[in-house]
UniProtKB/TrEMBL annotation:
<protein>
    <submittedName>
        <fullName>SDR family oxidoreductase</fullName>
    </submittedName>
</protein>
<keyword id="KW-0560">Oxidoreductase</keyword>
<dbReference type="Pfam" id="PF00106">
    <property type="entry name" value="adh_short"/>
</dbReference>
<dbReference type="InterPro" id="IPR036291">
    <property type="entry name" value="NAD(P)-bd_dom_sf"/>
</dbReference>
<dbReference type="GO" id="GO:0050664">
    <property type="term" value="F:oxidoreductase activity, acting on NAD(P)H, oxygen as acceptor"/>
</dbReference>
<dbReference type="InterPro" id="IPR002347">
    <property type="entry name" value="SDR_fam"/>
</dbReference>
<comment type="similarity">
    <text>Belongs to the short-chain dehydrogenases/reductases (SDR) family.</text>
</comment>
Length: 244
């Protein structure tokens, strides 16, 4: 893995107060970045931002006004924007295949896992262009590459963002903006919740938030436009190659 030096750079992490987000914020700060932490959880965002001397921003990523306002605030208060990690996400919470559908819950899922990513990319790109390029990393999931029968609606949202990453990555490469996706399997966080019981059944190792932060570092160093990266314990990560 190449080394990453983010000294003098500014990063923004959505869902930065959650399990994976906290590890990512810490790693970005260790690499030298000033970090803005966006989350619904005001106390959590403040706590993690303070711990790295960063900026806490409270907002709901499903609101189309949030990402443009946050990007503007980051540029104003931290001077620039170089790295954006669109990481906030939620689980499906219902089957979504058997007739009964909680539409409000479904719309919220799409709002957080899909709309937020589109709003985030659209808001960030002009700011990244002002720096001559930058990196956008999206936390997708292994459920973006294979079907997860326990949560079809989550699978739908993560396939959507992997597809968007592929296309946006190609569309923005000429601007020096590299868009990539992280596709972890099960990670030991609050989001995993009850699904934690399943990881044995599908023979996947349980990853830690630190593994995802390690993979992020690899992706920032070596990720190519539109690539989706799979992650192993220890943070070892590699670009996913679809079967022939
Ligand atoms: P988490 O629940 O620990 O953290 C998610 C964070 O996002 C929380 O701090 C929460 O407050 C924030 N958030 C949720 N909705 C928001 C909104 N509308 N506006 C702003 N912030 C919001 O979950 P996590 O496991 O750290 O998940 C992070 C990402 O990793 C998600 O995109 C998730 O889909 C993905 N992921 C998780 C796993 C896993 O097994 N935990 C596996 C693969 C991918």
């Amino acid at each position: 893995m190449s080394t990453v030096d983010l000294t003098g750079r500014v990063a923004l992490v959505t869902g930065g107060a959650g399990g994976i987000g906290v590890a990512v914020v810490r790693r970005l700060a260790e690499l030298g970045a000033s970090v803005a932490v966006l989350d619904l959880d005001a106390a959590g965002a403040q706590r993690i931002a303070s711990s790295v001397g960063g900026l806490a921003v409270v907002g709901d990523v499903t609101d189309p006004a949030t990402m443009p306002a946050v990007v503007a605030q980051v540029e104003k208060e931290l001077g620039r924007l170089d790295v954006v990690h669109l990481n906030a996400g939620i689980g499906g919470g219902q089957a979504g295949v058997d007739g009964a559908l909680d539409v409000e819950r479904y719309r919220k899922l799409v709002g957080v896992n899909v709309d937020h990513v589109v709003y985030g990319v659209c808001a960030a790109v002009p700011a990244l262009r002002r720096q001559g390029g930058g990196k956008i990393v999206i936390t997708a999931s292994l459920a973006g590459l294979v079907g997860m029968p326990a949560d079809p609606l989550y699978t739908l949202t993560k396939h959507a963002v992997v597809g968007y990453t592929r296309a946006a990555g190609q569309a923005l490469a000429a601007d020096g903006i590299v868009v990539t996706a992280l596709c972890p399997g099960f990670v030991d966080t609050l989001l995993l919740g009850a699904a934690k019981e399943e990881f044995d059944a599908v023979s996947l190792p349980l990853l830690t938030p630190g593994d995802i932060a390690g993979a992020l570092e690899s992706v920032l160093a070596d990720g190519g436009p539109g690539e989706a990266w799979i992650i192993q314990p220890g943070g070892h990560a590699s670009a996913y190659r679809p079967p022939d």
